[in-house]
Specification:
The complex is a heterodimer of chains A (230) and B (222). Chain A has 230 residues and is mainly alpha-helical. Chain A has 6 helices and no strands. Chain A is globular and about 55 Å long. Classes of the chains: A mainly alpha (230), B mainly alpha (222).
Chain lengths: 230, 222
């Protein structure tokens, strides 16, 4: 397999279009199926009623927000190590989608928290670290936006993404310890793991849909970046 | 190798002595920010005692960040940085020395003056030691992480605001452990665990941050 054949923006450009199309169609189909299972087939929750159905957006978005940061750091590291231009473009293209999913996870979490916990925001460990993840994404985007030279911008962003990905576990655990120290949040995320099979299926379908959407959108963005002359 | 490090530390300290007002500004900022909080939240002693660790730590964090701009900017402007990059001394050692000098100038004074602020906040005297120790362990980490941000934003427009956006999220663990150690010690639970974690962070940052700083400098100065 000639991996480096597609490392050139020129050869990747037409391939990106085909993959983006396929993934876009898959994302739409999976989202329709996932929403159908989630909103219509899945049973009403015994404790939370209908409001729990926001889980089908919330949990996949939270998964993607973390996964995309790791992918971004992966492409960034690859770009630094192999000096391939396309890697930096991939990292640049992934950042806005990651920030979007982080924001969606926080937003839907707030909307879900209001009826179930009675508050939009608690300083729970997961909420806090998700918020800091959003700050990390915004810092990455701001750094890249303020450097005009594309090569320098890609490499500077790469260093920041790698430093960030090393820090994420430290931030996560420190926030968790801080949370237990404060004894603050009286509500907790730890739900009973007994989840109806249809609920689980709906969540997996939505996660796959978000995954396909992320690939499609970031590839479209990569095509724009290549056109701009990278 | 060590001679190069000693030379850089000596030079940066000498520059700081020649321009004393820069050092004084950051220190004054620390004192003023910490003094503003009682004016904002009220002077109720119990409240002040409760928020003191967090306020002093946030003020230290902001003050340390404020002086990051000076870390590489003047060397970059007058061409010294290019000579350092071209020179034979390993860049990781040089930037570690620069971070050390930055801490000696901007971090150490905070450690020394923090007990005075603790007095203002009516912290019990038994906590002064923990406060100073947590700052002594934590502020070098701030200098090392901040140097990465300073190197990345070198020569950019609006670098000062940008650097805060980059490094403040990365400062979160230091803030949590630093303020947490004082709170735990104040509650009679002993802050040793948090202090040891701070020390661990310092070791990890001292080992890995110079590489990131060196890489960022090479990218920014090419």
């Amino acid at each position: 397999m000639k991996w480096f054949w597609y490392a050139s923006p020129e050869t990747f450009y037409p391939l990106a279009r085909r993959i983006a199309l396929a993934c876009g169609v898959a994302a739409a189909a999976l989202a329709v199926a996932g929403l159908y299972v989630g909103l219509i087939v899945a049973p009403t929750d015994a404790q939370q009623g209908e409001v729990y159905r926001i889980i089908f957006i919330h949990v996949p978005a939270a998964w993607m927000s973390m996964f995309i940061y790791v992918m971004m750091a992966f492409w960034a590291a690859l770009g630094l190590a192999l000096n391939t231009r396309l890697s930096g473009m991939m990292a640049r293209a992934l950042a806005p989608t990651g920030a979007l999913f982080t924001f969606i996870a926080l937003w839907t979490g707030a909307l879900w928290g209001r009826p179930t916990w009675g508050t939009y925001w608690v300083w729970d460990a997961r909420l806090t670290s998700e918020l800091i993840l959003l700050f990390l994404y915004l810092g990455f985007i701001a750094l890249q936006a303020s450097i005009d030279d594309r090569r320098r911008s890609d490499r500077a962003g790469a260093v920041l993404a790698i430093v960030g990905v090393v820090n994420i576990p430290i931030i996560y655990y420190s926030v968790q310890w801080w949370n237990t120290l404060h004894q603050g949040a009286s509500v907790s995320f730890t739900r009973a793991p007994s989840m109806a099979a249809t609920m689980f299926a709906g969540m997996i379908l939505m996660a796959l849909a978000f995954w396909m959407y992320s690939i499609a959108v970031s590839l479209v963005r990569v095509r724009c970046i290549i056109r701009e002359g990278g | 190798m060590l001679a190069a490090a000693r030379c850089i530390v000596y030079r940066d300290l000498l520059l700081a002595v020649r321009r004393r007002s820069d050092v004084a500004t950051a220190l004054l900022f620390f004192v003023i920010v910490a003094s503003l909080f009682p004016l904002g939240v009220g002077a109720e002693p119990n409240l002040l005692r409760a928020i003191a660790p967090g306020v002093i730590w946030v003020a230290a964090l902001l003050s340390s960040m404020l002086s990051l701009g000076r870390l590489f900017a003047s060397d970059y402007a007058d061409g010294t940085l290019e000579q350092i990059l071209l020179g034979a001394a390993p860049l990781g050692v040089v930037v570690a020395a620069k971070a050390l000098a930055h801490w000696l100038v901007s971090g150490l004074p905070l450690v020394l003056i923090a007990p005075v602020l603790a007095l203002q906040y009516d912290l019990p005297a038994s906590l002064y030691g923990v406060l100073a120790l947590s700052l002594a362990l934590g502020t070098p980490v701030l200098s090392l992480i901040g140097a990465i941000g300073a190197a990345l934003t070198l020569g950019l427009r609006g670098g000062g605001v940008l650097v805060s956006l980059l490094v403040l999220p990365l400062y979160v663990p230091v803030l949590i452990m630093g303020a947490g150690s004082i709170e735990l010690a104040g509650a009679g639970l002993g802050g040793q665990g948090q202090l040891l974690l701070l020390a661990a962070m310092l070791i990890v940052a001292a080992a890995f941050a110079p590489w990131a700083i060196a890489a960022a400098l090479r990218i920014s100065a090419e």
